[in-house]
Design a protein that fits this description.
By secondary structure, the chain is α+β, with helices and mostly antiparallel strands. It is built from nine helices and eight strands.
């Protein structure tokens, strides 16, 4: 009850706001707005930029590192004291020092090289994830959009039904006044009119809420837009969309992400191995101090070789080998699931098309059934309950077709995305 009251309040608030010139948006326009304004897209785009910065950061590891140091000291007595006969020589009581050291890595166990390759791979992964987010956002927009279209179509049907019920009510009232029909017929029609008005309110509330969701998702004002597309009675077979799934597998974003994950695990394994290999670096520097009186300037060069000895090396290397094996297993399993996903998406699309055709045919049959029952009622060969049942079947057939048509359109998007398009 509270939920229903909330819906009514939201709808009432929406209807009380000042009316503005409404902008009609097509599905493609809503998609484009979402790709530009949606929060998920902004976050994914920023992650791509972060990956590019990490790649540039990794390149700097090839450059020599420079460190500067300097300082001054003053002691209350010499830190070094040497007896010189009857006197004592005191040294290091005050002075300044400074220097610069340049270190150029020559070999680091392949960590710098493989680290750069991993950073480059990170950019490729982030770009694929951005494409994946685009697909998710597009599909969500489609679902919101077609939900509004379906509700609008149901509202149109109810408006048509309301006009039909008014006519039936008028005919029934005239028949009751003439004594041809009893008052029960008129009461049945009036009850159906009340039910229809109640459903109209519910649908108007749902439309307002769905428009709120879509407006927030695409970044526009819910009170200044509406959807332009309507349900069409022209259905085109989806056969022109079908493709060879084996040929399309490698073009899908999900397949490429799985493949990149295998490459990343291989590079991580090599990076880990490099931690336990010797490193070689060339160092050079300049040193200055005046602790001994006159300033001393020195230039120093050295070759630094470091050989790590670690007890955990064999276990760590084995661990990363197992991680790589898991990545390969997930790649093979994921590829098979993607093939199943494509096949299922095609089956769902074909089924949605067939269901829409059946629903469209049901509209024609329900229209004819309603027409005949109107004639039978006027001729006195059928009762009001039969006529109202025919009206309800007509309403249900139109609603079912609107739902089937929207599902068919969404199934198209899902199939195209499943096959990398």
């Amino acid at each position: 009850m509270m939920k229903r009251t909330l819906y009514i309040c939201l709808a009432a608030l929406a209807f009380q706001l000042p009316l503005k010139a409404q902008q009609l948006y097509t599905l493609e326009e809503c998609r484009q707005m979402a790709l530009e304004q949606n929060a998920k897209m902004k976050v994914a785009a920023n992650k791509t930029q972060m990956a590019k910065q990490e790649k540039r950061e990794a390149v700097t590891n090839f450059f020599p590192s420079i460190s500067l140091t300097g300082g001054a000291m003053k002691a209350d007595d010499g830190l070094i004291q040497m007896p010189m006969g009857e006197q004592t020589m005191k040294l290091l009581d005050e002075g300044m020092f400074g220097g610069a050291i340049v270190t150029m890595p020559i070999f680091a166990g392949g960590q710098i090289y493989h680290g750069n390759k991993l950073a480059k791979l990170g950019v490729e992964l982030s770009e694929l994830q951005l494409r994946q987010t685009q697909n998710e956002v597009t599909l969500t927009v489609d679902q919101y959009y077609w939900n509004i279209v379906v509700l609008n179509e149901k509202l149109k049907t109810l408006q048509h039904v309301s006009a039909l019920l008014e006519k039936i009510c008028s005919d029934a009232k005239a028949a009751v006044d003439a004594g041809i029909k009893n008052r029960n017929d008129l009461l049945q029609v009036e009850l159906r009119k009340n039910e229809t008005q109640s459903v109209v309110i519910d649908i108007q509330n749902n439309i307002a809420i769905c428009k709120m969701l879509l407006a927030q998702y695409i970044g526009t004002d819910m009170n200044s837009f509406d959807v332009q597309t309507a349900v069409s009675t022209e259905l085109r077979s989806p056969e022109h969309l079908y493709v060879n799934h084996n040929e399309r597998l490698e073009t899908t974003v999900e397949y490429q992400l799985l493949s990149k994950a295998v490459d990343a695990s291989k590079l991580e394994k090599r990076l880990n191995t490099g931690q336990f290999l010797p490193t070689v670096a060339l160092q050079g520097g300049y040193l200055y101090n005046d602790f001994m009186g006159p300033s001393q300037n020195s230039f120093v060069g050295m070759l630094n070789v470091s050989i790590p000895i670690s007890w955990k090396a064999p276990f760590s290397v084995r661990k990363y080998k197992l991680r790589h094996q898991n990545a390969v297993t997930e790649f093979n399993n994921g590829s098979e699931q993607l093939m199943i996903r494509m096949q299922k998406a095609q089956i769902d699309l074909s089924n949605a098309y067939q269901q829409a055709l059946i629903a469209l045919n049901s509209i024609e049959q329900s229209e004819e059934n309603l027409r005949l029952n109107e004639q039978y009622y006027k001729a006195g060969t059928s009762g009001m309950s039969d006529l109202l049942e025919a009206q309800q079947l007509y309403q249900q057939s139109r609603d079912k077709y609107a739902e089937a048509y929207s599902k068919y359109e969404i199934s198209k998007t899902e199939y195209l995305q499943a096959t990398g398009r």
